[in-house]
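Retro notes, item 3 of 5
We never archived the inputs for the 5-phosphoarabinonic acid complex last cycle. Fixing that now. Sequence and ligand:
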Amino acid sequence: MDVIANDLRACVEPTESIRFDFNNMLDKRVGYGRGVSAEVLEALRGKAAEALSAVQAARGTGWLEWTELPYQDESILSDIKDAARDIRERCDAFVLLGIGGSALGPACVHEALHPPRANELPAEKRGGPRMYFEDNIDPERMASLLEIIDPAKTCFNIITKSGATAETMSQYLIIRDALQRAFDGSPDWRRNIVVTTSANRGLLVEIARLEGFRSFVVPEGVGGRFSELSPVGLLAAAVGGVDICQLLKGAAVMDELCKQTDIMKNPALLEAALQFIASRDLGRNINVMMPYADGLRLFADWFCQLWAESLGKSVTRSGAEIYAGQTPVKALGVTDQHSQLQLYTEGPFDKVITIIKVESFRNETIIPHAPEGYPADIAFLGGITHNKLIEAERQGTEYALLKAGRMNKTIIVPSVCAYTVGQLLFFFEMATAFMGELLNIDAFNQPGVEESKLATFATLNHPAAKYEAKRREMAALPERDQAYIL
Ligand code: PA5
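Structure as it came back at the time:
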């Protein structure tokens, strides 16, 4: 595999670890009655230990197969690297077609580990194909994609675990058509498609066999939102020049931490316990993810899907009504200081804010000195760096939140690299699994999403009987009142 084109993507220290500062979740910092007390946390230790045991006992089985992804077979990684090398040599664009868990992880890792606007860099600086993550079926988006890529020089990675998702399969049919035209009848168009899907379930695996597409497997027991460290995310990462072994190594290191039985040494268990208490006892039903780095903007998107789809459940595992789940919200520091922070500091006491602090950026931007005679409030900026300014603003936000009695915590990332991103991903996946246990819900299904899929197919008059039943159910709704359509 090529070395990463831009060596600024390497960790400052290849062994550096992310750290967690939970101080501002506690009442002694944020104010009595407004944070978690030491006694309440202590009282949760037993339940947290049970959550840990349950996850550890089930790891590698059922829907917890994803816990083994950091240790996956070398032969899988080697196939991924081979395919990536071939794509980097032949193609000047790589387009991922997928949705939800089949797109958010790959897009987040790409954005984190490449310079902003990487696609606009000249090819020699980029060192690999332009990368596009197409996770919607807005007709204007597909049309504009086809205007800027040459299908003959583009690799399309079709990703769907179920192998039947309408959004992804409709994209596939459009691309298949475009490729056939671009290759003018030559069967070589098939080399420009790589499929990532379940080995034995769904329709895409059959299509891949029929057409002879190169394919990768989404392992059984790895749900979409937990699949970033499987071939779902690893192929795109390798095509982009990311060291996928460092990504997995970071996840493995975090996995070790998340096996610790002492809650004060297990960051994901502590995270889950604090969020559990925050929502159960203090009504903190909104969970804001606020990275202070553009490169982690899509990380917040990835996290929001993970937390929302896993924990938003109406019933417990025994079927009792619960209506659980904090609403995750994405924000970006410092941009959203000028949009959301007013609400976070003075609005309802219903939020926990997670700040991500990046200690070392890939670039340093020095602010030039202002000309003589400029007002002091502008002149004082001269000579400092944007690196210093963004950190000062982050500290300012943390202080404003604390002063207003708002629960917050900080994840400290020494530098954003494959190793630390692997840690971040695995940390939140484990925290989600622990939170599912504490809530006693199934964190790995998504019945609410399935309902919308059924209704969509029914609306499109799909002939199967189950959609006919759904059509009748939908038609039984009260009539829409024209008086309310203005
Ligand atoms: O996390 C999940 O399971 C979902 O978000 C899925 O990833 C999403 O619905 C897409 O499903 P599929 O990969 O089967 O096309």
